[in-house]
């Protein structure tokens, strides 16, 4: 009698355990180690955004979008960067095309709400939610990502093929704009239905193709700064060209205890990723990394108010409606030290208390209860005037 595989590649999720297991077990056995297909991760899943809305978003200035058309007969790929237009969509063929839109969570609150299911990961580790819509046969070709990704099926079916062969060649084609693999042979293949989710750690070759009609897939991707990026931002004069595949890694990650905190373990991983950093002061490393990771891959930055809010006016507004909204482009993280706590927002550092820093990282709508201290009020006012927090207007009853 054959023994079951110690780490099954396919499990079934439930409302209680969308990962098909506890977050701790997933991080221990699968995170950055091996792929996992989770059937029914989100039962009766309804996508938070419809295809027409996605197409409309792709036409907006400032949105990162691409329309990819595959000429199957001649195996030619055409990439049209955004912003797109109605004419671009009108010219698409009947099938074999794909629309990709990045950072959709920054533009749509319902899409951003999906990130609540991934709160077992540090919030600063999450990059964005990219959504792809494809007609029959649409895809981007076999490729490799250098970051963790959760591929959640939203509409229709998509056929996924992956390779777990560590010796599989990973050289790229030179005749297409996309970073496609020149050679790809699958070891596992599945058909995903709405609510199914495929997790892939970095470096796993994969290919997804729309099957049987239109399909939409939501990709929850992680931030994984390469060693070259980390080195260059820390000290330009000592930066060297390092392989892009060498990135920030945390295979020993355990469920996040405090949302948004850059904890001691993260600093120790930095010292491994940046050998010369081991000789640097921890306070300097925390200050640099907090600024860097909240600025990393930020396509846009909130603008400061033209007319700053005064302290007196801020007090009145809080009394009328003590709720603040976090700007969707404001990335936040925080760290604690013996001398206090620092909140990092889009590359800037602010003195804070651990409780308020965690609340700001954890919540998109910040309901302020109880009396605020002078330092807490000063922080919130600074964030409002810098454009990172918006005062929610009173709703009419």
How would you characterize this protein structure?
There is one protein chain. By secondary structure, this protein is an alpha+beta fold. It has two domains: 10-222, Jelly Rolls; 311-391, no CATH class. The chain contains eleven helices and 16 strands. The protein has helices at 23-29, 51-58, 86-90, 104-107, 109-112, 227-234, 264-273, 282-295, 311-320, 354-362, 374-385; strands at 10-12, 36-39, 65-71, 76-81, 97-101, 126-134, 149-162, 188-192, 197-200, 206-222, 323-326, 332-337, 340-345, 348-352, 365-367, 389-391. Strands 1, 2, 3, 4, 5, 6, 7, 8, 9 and 10 form a ten-stranded mixed β-sheet that branches.
Which key terms come to mind for this protein?
Jelly Rolls, ten-stranded mixed sheet, globular, three-stranded antiparallel sheet, 11 helices, 2 domains, alpha+beta, 397 residues
Q: Which percent bin holds the helix content?
A: 10-25%
Q: What coarse outline follows from CA principal-axis ratios?
A: globular
CATH superfamily of the largest domain: Cupin
Q: Residue ranges: pLDDT <50 for 5 or more in a row?
A: 237-243
Write the layout of secondary structure elements.
Blueprint: E1 10-12, H1 23-29, E2 36-39, H2 51-58, E3 65-71, E4 76-81, H3 86-90, E5 97-101, H4 104-107, H5 109-112, E6 126-134, E7 149-162, E8 188-192, E9 197-200, E10 206-222, H6 227-234, H7 264-273, H8 282-295, H9 311-320, E11 323-326, E12 332-337, E13 340-345, E14 348-352, H10 354-362, E15 365-367, H11 374-385, E16 389-391
Parallel strand pairs: 1-2
Antiparallel strand pairs: 2-9, 3-4, 3-5, 5-6, 6-10, 7-8, 7-9, 7-10, 11-15, 11-16, 12-13, 13-14
């Amino acid at each position: 009698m054959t023994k079951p595989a110690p780490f099954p590649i396919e499990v079934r999720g439930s409302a209680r355990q969308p990962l098909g297991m506890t977050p701790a077990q997933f991080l221990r056995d699968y995170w950055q180690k091996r792929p996992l297909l989770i059937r029914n991760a989100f039962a009766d899943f309804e996508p938070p955004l419809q295809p027409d809305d996605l197409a409309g978003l792709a036409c907006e200035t400032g949105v990162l979008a691409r329309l990819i058309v595959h000429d199957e007969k001649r195996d030619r790929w055409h990439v049209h960067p955004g912003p797109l237009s109605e004419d671009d969509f009108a010219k698409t063929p009947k099938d074999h095309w794909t629309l990709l839109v990045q950072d959709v969570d920054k533009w749509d609150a319902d899409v951003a709400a999906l990130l609540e299911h991934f709160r077992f990961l540090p919030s600063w580790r999450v990059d964005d939610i990219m959504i792809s819509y494809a007609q029959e046969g649409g895809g981007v070709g076999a490729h490799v990502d250098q970051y963790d990704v959760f591929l959640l099926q939203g509409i229709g079916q998509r056929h996924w093929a992956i390779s777990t062969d560590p010796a599989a060649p990973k050289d790229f084609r030179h005749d297409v704009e996309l970073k496609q693999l020149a050679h790809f042979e699958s070891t596992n293949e599945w058909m995903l239905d709405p609510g199914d989710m495929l997790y892939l750690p970095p470096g796993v070759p994969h290919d997804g193709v729309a099957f049987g009609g239109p399909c939409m897939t939501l990709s929850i991707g992680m931030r994984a700064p390469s060693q070259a990026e980390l080195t260059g931002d820390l000290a330009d004069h000592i930066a060297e060209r390092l392989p892009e595949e060498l990135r920030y890694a945390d295979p020993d990650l355990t469920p996040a205890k405090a949302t948004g905190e850059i904890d001691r373990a993260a600093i120790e991983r930095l010292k491994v990723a940046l050998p010369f950093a081991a000789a640097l002061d921890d306070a300097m490393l925390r200050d640099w990394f907090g600024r860097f990771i909240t600025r990393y891959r930020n396509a846009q930055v909130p603008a400061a108010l033209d007319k700053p809010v005064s302290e007196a006016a801020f007090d009145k507004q809080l009394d009328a409606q003590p709720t603040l909204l976090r700007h969707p482009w404001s990335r936040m993280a925080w760290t604690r030290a013996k001398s206090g706590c620092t909140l990092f927002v889009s590359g800037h550092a602010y003195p804070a208390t651990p409780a308020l820093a965690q609340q700001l990282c954890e919540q998109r709508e910040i309901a302020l209860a109880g009396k605020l201290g002078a330092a807490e009020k000063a922080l919130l006012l600074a964030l409002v005037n810098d454009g990172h927090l918006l005062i929610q207007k009173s709703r009419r009853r």
